[in-house]
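Query structure, 256 tokens:
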């Protein structure tokens, strides 16, 4: 019987994979048989994760690239092609959130940094990846957005706007790449216990408020995103494109 979720012989790039959600996705892909190229800014941290992936019996390499650096992202795709000969799956997961405050008081440097890393980096990487995917007859792009891309997070307006843009990018690419057999989908996490969101979950009062509104009664862990990523990377999702999958323990549904 065909395994709809099998990733054998697939080649994937996962950005922001030195820890958190990206690392959990990379681990899941390797378990499902994929060859994985992990990326983030810090080569040392990536090397440790890649060693772990290989020690578990998988195939993985680590290539550092800043998500705001177009040339570095193009080189990431070129190096992937040189090493593995093709590219089937791209997970745009790396992001930044340097500004906590209202959007009107955020200065231009924050806007530019957040737009470059969270939006333009994913555009540049998608441009380079799509060329390779077209050559291979199809592919999968998975964008990690956020529930604050659907409704803005308080004092996280700049970041929220970039995540709304990611949702729009996902839908737009789904339309533009449908005929190329490239499916493009987004995952919108709620609060997840990673370094990225530490300021939120480490604040006991804030965490209590969030948990009171979360039907699941807990915040997310990186592993909660591994299964949906495998689905969206695999033949099981061949008829799924332009979709946004909210994984937030029910937070956005709210309490009764
Ligand atoms: N945690 C949450 O509550 C939450 C909620 C909704 C959405 N998300 C989204 O989930 C994704 C992953 O976040 P996470 O929670 O897993 O965070 P995390 O554990 O802090 O991991 C972030 C990853 O991104 C990399 N990174 C950061 N800035 C980068 C840059 N400029 N260029 C390239 N790589 C960069 C980091 O590695 P280096 O430091 O080595 O670069 C790291 O591998 C992000 O898109 C985030 O917006 C998170």
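Result returned for the query:
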């Amino acid at each position: 019987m065909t395994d709809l979720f099998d990733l054998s012989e697939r080649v994937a790039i996962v950005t922001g994979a030195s820890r958190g959600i990206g690392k959990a996705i990379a681990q899941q892909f390797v378990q499902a048989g994929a060859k994985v190229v992990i990326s983030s800014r810090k080569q040392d941290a990536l090397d440790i994760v890649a060693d772990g992936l290989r020690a578990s019996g998988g195939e993985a390499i680590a290539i550092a690239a800043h998500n705001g650096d177009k040339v570095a992202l193009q080189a990431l795709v070129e190096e992937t092609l040189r090493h593995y000969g093709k590219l089937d799956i791209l997970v745009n997961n790396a992001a930044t959130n340097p500004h906590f405050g209202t959007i009107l008081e955020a200065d231009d440097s924050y806007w530019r940094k957040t737009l470059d890393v969270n939006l333009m980096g994913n555009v540049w990487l998608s441009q380079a990846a799509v060329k390779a995917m077209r050559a291979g007859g199809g592919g999968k792009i998975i964008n990690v957005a956020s529930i604050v891309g659907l409704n803005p997070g308080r004092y996280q307006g700049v970041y929220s706007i970039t995540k709304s843009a990611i949702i729009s990018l996902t839908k737009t690419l789904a339309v533009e790449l449908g005929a190329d057999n490239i499916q493009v989908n987004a995952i919108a996490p709620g609060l997840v216990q990673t370094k990225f969101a530490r300021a939120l979950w480490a604040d006991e009062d804030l965490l209590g408020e969030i948990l009171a509104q979360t039907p699941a009664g807990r915040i997310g862990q990186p592993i909660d995103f591994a299964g949906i990523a495998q689905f969206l990377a695999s033949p099981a999702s061949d008829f799924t494109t332009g979709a946004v999958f909210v994984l937030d323990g029910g937070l956005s549904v709210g309490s009764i």
